Fold:
Amino acid sequence: MPRAVNAVAARQKRKKVLKRTRGYWGRRSNVWTVAKNAYEKGLSYAYRDRRKKKSEFRALWIQRINAAAREHGMSYSVFMGKLKKNGIEINRKVLADLAMNNPEAFAVIVNKVK
Structure:
């Protein structure tokens, strides 16, 4: 009895990976073992960086709020402390957007907490 191998499924699996690695540099795009390793590593980087992106944006928002608060003579930590003490619940994303795109509204918030 001949040996049974599922060549169709194996080829489909390889084609799927090679299709997704199109555009990679050098052998990463056309040699099966190298492409498979590059593809799997890319997936792990994507998983990690979807989480990392959140902390990077938070850091950006904090920098923007700090810069805008310092224009009004207040540091970031003092500003956030006074916001909490006065019961103003605005998240950092909205505060950073106001600081960048609507400085007048940000100034109103700063004057309210002073």
